[in-house]
Amino acid sequence: MSIAAAKSLENPEETRRFPHGHVDLVTLGGTTAGRAEFEPGWRWSNDVAPIAGTKSCQAMHTGYVLSGRMHIRMDDGTEADVGPGDAMVVEPGHDAWTVGDESCVVLDFTGLENYAKQ
């Protein structure tokens, strides 16, 4: 049996808020997808780590940057920047922060099931 599904992130099933941002979520066929907005001043280690209870983000992210810029630092010291139009994969074990004075908006298709979940 084939299944096709669509849900709008304009009407999310859930919104999780954290300092300097939020993520809007929908679940489709067992996959949680979301649009995250990371405002200027957002940093994972400051704003989400207290919720996650881990030293670094342990979620894998597969996403696409719609706007703004983000800097990512892996636990091993590897660093990268992502910006508008970039597709990205970020393995578990990282910190990240918004760069500049524009919110970074990212569509994420993995790693959001428990992200910033109280």
From TrEMBL:
InterPro entries, sorted: Cupin_2 (IPR013096), RmlC-like_jellyroll (IPR014710), RmlC_Cupin_sf (IPR011051)
Superkingdom classification of source: Bacteria
Ranges where the Cupin type-2 domain occurs: 61-108
Region annotated Disordered, chain positions: 1-21
One Pfam family, short name: Cupin_2
Protein name: Cupin domain
Species: Saccharothrix variisporea
Organism placement in taxonomy: Bacteria, Bacillati, Actinomycetota, Actinomycetes, Pseudonocardiales
